[in-house]
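TA notes, week 10

Several of you asked for a full example with nothing omitted. So below is the full record: structure tokens for the whole chain, then the designed sequence directly under it. When grading your own attempts, check the secondary structure regions first.
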């Protein structure tokens, strides 16, 4: 880029840049905030000016994140950490831990690459029983607080329900809320999906190709993968439940030739 590059071209180049995997955009927004803060201080700018410049830069990058929650997390990182770490004389800076610890318990790092807590709305899976034969065993991969399990239970009250959840706080809470389900704290990618007739997901678009590959490795032919809102790229669905005011429910059936015919292997 030459210094004469007009601003609209810079903006277009930024838009065309490939999207970075989460949470890199948030880390970049926080780092830029701190970089600008240190640079402005080194140039002798007053603290208020340095703070505004740093905040502006960090917010501009945060704005480019996809989705309201990711945008919020990216936007809050610099001001919260600055508030915590830059001494004001009034509050001890370790107080920020009181804010961060519950957040980390609810939303630990490994869950960042998939989805944070967005519960399945009640009734979101209604009608699934007209498409999928009653499953004996169902897994909600990333079960959050158990709203997806409750929706599955409403459709198939006889099914054995299982949930895995990476956040220890959410896993305990879900186990307390959903006494009918067997819920454990685990990484859904490291847990075998074998033995389940249906795996349900409500994650992110980016997780869907990986979920399909895992389902093909772990699950028997004829078993189902069901995803709320997000489709598996490039795979024909068995059905998609749609309706006014409801999120689409994508239903996939595992084909007869699986990648791993033995099934049941633990793996990512
Ligand atoms: C959008 S919420 C869906 C919650 C629930 N399935 C529902 O539909 O109500 C996604 C959940 O997946 C969890 N999660 C993300 N990555 C995970 C992982 N690798 N292993 C287990 N849980 C994960 C998050 O902590 C979050 O609670």
């Amino acid at each position: 880029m030459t210094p004469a590059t007009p601003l609209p071209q810079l903006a277009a180049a930024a838009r065309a840049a490939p999207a970075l995997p989460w949470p890199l955009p948030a880390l970049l927004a926080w780092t830029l905030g701190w970089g600008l803060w240190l640079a402005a201080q080194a140039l002798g700018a007053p603290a208020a000016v340095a703070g505004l410049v740093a905040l502006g830069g960090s917010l501009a990058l945060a704005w480019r994140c996809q989705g309201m929650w990711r945008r919020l997390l990216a936007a809050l990182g610099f001001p919260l950490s600055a508030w915590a770490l830059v001494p004001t004389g009034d509050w001890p800076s370790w107080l920020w831990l009181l804010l961060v610890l519950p957040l980390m318990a609810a939303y630990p790092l490994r869950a960042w690459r998939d989805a944070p807590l967005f519960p399945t709305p009640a009734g979101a899976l209604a009608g699934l029983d007209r498409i999928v034969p009653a499953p004996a065993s169902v897994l909600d991969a990333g079960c959050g607080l158990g709203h997806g399990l409750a929706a599955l239970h409403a459709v198939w009250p006889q099914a054995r329900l299982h949930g895995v959840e990476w956040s220890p706080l959410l896993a305990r809470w879900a186990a307390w809320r959903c006494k009918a389900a067997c819920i454990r704290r685990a990484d859904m990618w490291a847990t075998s999906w074998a033995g389940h007739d249906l795996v349900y997901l409500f994650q992110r678009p980016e997780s869907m190709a990986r979920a399909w590959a895992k389902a093909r490795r772990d699950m028997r032919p004829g078993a189902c993968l069901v995803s709320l809102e997000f489709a598996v790229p490039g795979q024909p669905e068995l059905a998609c439940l749609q309706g006014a005011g409801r999120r689409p429910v994508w239903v996939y059936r595992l084909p007869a030739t699986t990648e791993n015919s033995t099934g049941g292997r633990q793996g990512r």
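The radius of gyration is 22 Å. Use that as a sanity check on your answer.
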